[in-house]
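During the second half of the funding period, the structural biology subgroup turned its attention to how the target accommodates small molecules. The most pressing case was dihydroflavine-adenine dinucleotide, which had performed well in the primary screen but for which no bound structure existed. We therefore specified the complex as follows and requested a full 3D prediction, including the ligand pose.
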Amino acid sequence: MRAFIIFLSRAAWAQRLVTHWGIARRAASRFIAGESGEEAIRVIQHLNEAGILATLDHLGENTSTAAEARQATDEILQMLDRIRASGVRSNMSIKLSQIGLLLDAGLCQDNLQRILQKARQTQNFIRIDMEDSSLTEKTLACLRWARTQGFENVGIVLQSYLHRSQNDIQELITEGVPVRLVKGAYREPAEIAYPDKADVDQAFDRLAGLLIAGAKQHANPTANENGLVPPIPAIATHDPKRIQTARDLQVQYGLPKQAIEFQMLYGIRRDLQEALVGAGFPVRVYVPYGTHWYPYFMRRLAERPANMWFFISNFFRR
Ligand code: FDA
């Protein structure tokens, strides 16, 4: 089922079908903060009132022309200004395929540079999301290029389902790069990724351990004062067992609570988000907005088949 939904997330015909259903739009709204920037800022204001930080994502990926990639970049620049003007506690997450990675590495670097310059001006931070494995190497190369240009306001995502992540995380820790650890949301072949959930979970705990130990080596940097620039380890999961393991590791390594961050997706496990805030941990919610919600929505359905049944049963109940 998961593989089939991920296949559909990439099929143009399925996108045309699904995005025209009113019921799909309503189902997607559980995971998406709205179509406009204003709606997204309002959602973040509510999260901030509950003590939760945010990372904003202007939805879009696999851009197919240079003009679209520049337009997507402009939207991100405007949003960074809007975050600054509104004073919300939010940084931004971006996908390199949205700003031209599939078209031309030079174009992507130019766009990334514009984004990081604006983030620097507005004292903000950019997290580069990790896409499917065809882009892992290119994404890491772009991150490293940005850091050699003197940009330290940028971090990355690693996926515990990939075998290579063990090496990547060790190198990135040495380089002092902030890392968001996730399980991974794409469909990957067994030669490069663990097919079994138990192995992905075990790898998640192991990599979380490396990340937390790595933060210690760097003298436990914490988030900056306004919470926009995160600490080195961001543990991004809704899995209570993984969260408990990370909390145990945080105690074991003597890491202050403020030197680690938990991250979750908008619309998922709000109870857990609030419990962690109550326990004194920084919590950041990934807030997607925009009109290109289809692939993001389908990946959320793939993560939990129950979501798919809920969606289908609503469709037949119309
Ligand atoms: P798991 O899938 O085991 O779920 C644990 C529990 O969480 C479930 O039992 C359920 O209660 C709840 N849950 C999880 N997903 C749900 C859903 N869709 N609907 C309802 N409940 C759900 N991936 C990637 O490849 N690249 C990236 O850049 C990112 N970025 C990212 C940022 C942040 C902040 C988060 C939290 C996640 C990502 N991901 C990601 C997605 C990630 O790889 C993974 O697919 C999801 O987080 C789901 O996995 P869990 O760790 O929650 O565990």
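Two results from this model are relevant to the next phase. The chain is about 50% helix and 15% strand. The longest strand covers residues 283-289.
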